[in-house]
Amino acid sequence: MKLGFVDVGGGTRGIYGAGVFDYFMENKIKGDYFIGVSAGAANGASFLAGQHGRNFTFYNEYAFRKTYMSIANFIKTGSYIDLDYIYYTLSKSDGENPLDYKKLKENPMEFEIVATNALTGKAEYFNKDDLYQDNYDPIKASCCVPVLCKPYKINNIPYLDGGLSDPIPFKRAFEKSCDKLIVVLTKPKDFFRNPKDDYKFSRILKMKYPNAGKTFSKRAKIYNKSLEQLLMLEKQKKAIIIAPKDIGNLKTLTQDHDQLEKLYEMGREDAKRIISSNDPFR
Description:
By secondary structure, this protein is an alpha/beta fold. The protein contains twelve helices and eight strands.
């Protein structure tokens, strides 16, 4: 049986997934395939590299630095989040908290990263072959929050957050021959998006990237339909969903040490509770 992991990310709320995968590392729970969206891709990289606790530090320490994300960044560069600071300066081999690229590459688990092509508005999938020592551009692209950040270019093609085009990429996991999935959400599994929430930002994005803006305007519909299908897969025992019951008032880029630490611990506890009652290998 081929077991796959799906992590949907969600900005600093991705600390919930960091807690889930730290629990998996502690208990030697492994799979065959991992697909991550946005912060979920960053969680996946540390998971494959076997770096327990690494992502907790990024969410609950580095994310509070102005160099990481701030209005000053936006005024200076046009991007609120400095993706190069996160996934190069901090993560390079001689950085403050390097990603163990060698272990990531040697891990037999398949790894894919979802990003949205800003020109077409469609999802594209990167894999390990697109990652190089100290060059983690696909993760940067996947984490590129629209409007708040300029699209991140790879081979001169602008990319945005993978959550716009494929927010819960379970279909891709099944296309890659997975038989069963563990899906990590960062909002309650009964939460459905309101299309009105995306109206303003999608209009702004459409001015320069019309196809990406159109995709953004459909984000709620895409997410909600994917969630409905995922809930059916859960009933059919083809997917195990790990999701927080309550995220309080945490938004995508919330900076609150207490709430973030609480969400991390919730991820660990939820993983323990759900996996103990749902054998992922059956």
